[in-house]
Protein 1
Amino acid sequence: MNPIRSIVAVLGGILLISVVVEVLEFTLVSARAGGAIIDLTGYFAIRNQPVMLAAKLVYNTLAAMLGGYMIAKVAGTREMLHGGVGALLQTAAFAWGFTVGEYAAFTPVWMRVVLVALTGPAMLAGASIRARAAGTSQSA
């Protein structure tokens, strides 16, 4: 196991999740607004509509699965271990951001709880898919 490759895999997967989620969210909120949004209050007012929150659950979960898959693919070995490390780090980052982060108050509490609860398992599911595809479904 190459430690540099492991670090790149985990950090790259986490970065991928962030980029995918941010781009999708901004695109969907802008489309729903029908144009440019000029302030954060307007942005979150649209993002926190029920249909947008439902979409957020879907795209966050899919992005987490993709991130877990990519972590496992780039790592190339011990896919579930790498996916687990990525899931732990991403879940910890979400938990921190959703409790003391600058924008935590802009997301409903129930949504924060659900996102923290779903992210790790979704990342592990993505890593598991990759491990099975690679024929190495070991658990550690």
Note: The chain has one domain: 3-132.
Protein 2
Amino acid sequence: MAESETEVKDVIREGDFVIVDYVARVEETGEIADLTLEDVAKKEKIYREDGIYKPKLVIVGEGWFIKGFEEGLIGLEVGKKAEIRVPPEKGFGERDPKKIKVVPIREFRKSGITPRPGMRVTINGKVGTIHTVTSGRVRVDFNHPLAGKTIIYEVYVRKKLTDDLEKIKAIIGRRLRGIDEEKFEVKIENSEVRIHMPNEVFLLENIQYAKLGIASDIHKHFPQINSVVFVEEIVRKEKSSAT
């Protein structure tokens, strides 16, 4: 009986908080679509200095990732590697020819943009990729770049989170990925969560939106929590004594 209980505990189920590393490749070409591993990024020569390479939090079934990936996590064992194959209908959708539009080049010039093939552009709130540029006309594909593609995830489930403090720190880390979540001091007292913010957050862009997102995630997944308090403190630096 003890062995079966251990097996159930180590298997991922819907609603679990799990920390994963992965490399996602387009099945047809082997091209990397996304990844969390710095060493792989360097090996494949796609490393970016401004990239963030660290494991990601998945709340299985929450919809933060494509449906096929989250569904594929269910039943995997913690601490083991696996491959998840995601077809277009459970990934980024099928390609829709109706989403390929011809836009007058003057629309780009109004915004001071010189259109070029391969350029990503936003038109009327929709993001697309320029395919061709001819005299006076620009052909733009508003399909997702991975639409119609089957994605293969090589995934390693590092950990299942069971402690509330760990879960909340992981939620913070998801919203503020450039800062180590261990730098945040988190306390749960009755129906309140207090989050002491490190100095690194003060100069971040859109920090208020990030805080709203963190609070929203906590309220959704911890129904016993009524309030989330962010503590921002700047401590006077002691002057060094003259020698």
Note: Residues 207-221 form the longest helix (15 residues).
Protein 3
Amino acid sequence: MLSGNGFEEVYNLSGGIKAWQREVAVGPEDTGMYLFSKEMSVEEAIVVGFNLEEGLRDFYLQMQLRVEKEEAKKLLGKLADIEIIHQEWLVKLYSEVTGIETTVPEFLQKTAEPVMEGGLTTDEYLQLYNTDLNSELEILSLAMAIEAQALDLYGRAAAQTENREAKDILLKIALEERSHLAGLSHYIDSYGELS
């Protein structure tokens, strides 16, 4: 299924999902699917992706206000800044697809209310993962869980869409989410060595 949907490298995991040692998506199969329609256009898919990145950026900034530990505040600020890089990538993709040059601030004005990546609300994520927001490693683990949720959501959205071009874009965004996960995983590994 994955190789047929544009994923070039597909690995079988010995022992199945029970042997998997990293984050997995959680919740009902339809979580977040209200954001995507079967007939959505390429432009709409990118706008939804942008809104998800903005929602996650806002989440990190709101969490930054709740923590007391200075290192945790700095980490949440860094994670919020990384979301701007993700937004810039989506705006560039939008410009490539539509031929319309735009910027992140201009794009923000034309998009809908931001929502969290993965389709859950801020409170749902906090309840689900019960994260100690003064622990940098727990914050990073939460960030990975959110990215895993987003990767899963884009895959499910791509599987349901009837627009081939939108499906291709959703799979491209899913691959980008996979690279976000890899980056966070590397950061956690190096952070663990420093702690």
Note: The radius of gyration is 17 Å.
Protein 4
Amino acid sequence: MVLTNSTAKISLDEFLQLPETKPASEYINGQVYQKPMPQGEHSTLQGSLITAINQIAKPSKIGYAFPELRCTFGGAVIVPDVTVFEWSRIPLQPNGRITNRFEIPPDWIIEILSPDQSPSHVIRKITFSLNHGTKLGWFVDPDGEAVTVFQPNQTPEFKEGKDILPVLDVLSSWQLSVADLFSLLYFS
């Protein structure tokens, strides 16, 4: 994450009045951070995870994975690489159509470390989310081919190789090992 305003803190209302940026900007603890532009590994993992989760979750209406969804909660605005909501928690309009604004914490966030991105800021975002109701966070490190798993009130777990990654309870029929996750990066 690139800190776009390193000295002056602004309020959440001031942040929400700013124009949208590409890539997206986030707001945590009065600071504005712009996400880095996704590159090949990041985009491949993000797209593949969203597809895999939605192939399991959407038909049975147990959950849905979103790419780069802006979530406002706990006085912050975050845009995780992958955001997963259990179906019953997806914000809807009275007619059943999805809303544009998600003002609740996601159930699961997946962050994929990009080159030149601050690992500590990404971890801070995951722990902030957990402190506000998120049930699961993955910190995916493509260079190290490892995933650090965050869950409320637990020590983070380092997963690699054939380790099976935990998922939301509603998706417990789906299993993915760390090796299987990173095999998505190989095209030959």
Note: Confidence is low (pLDDT under 50) at residues 1-6.
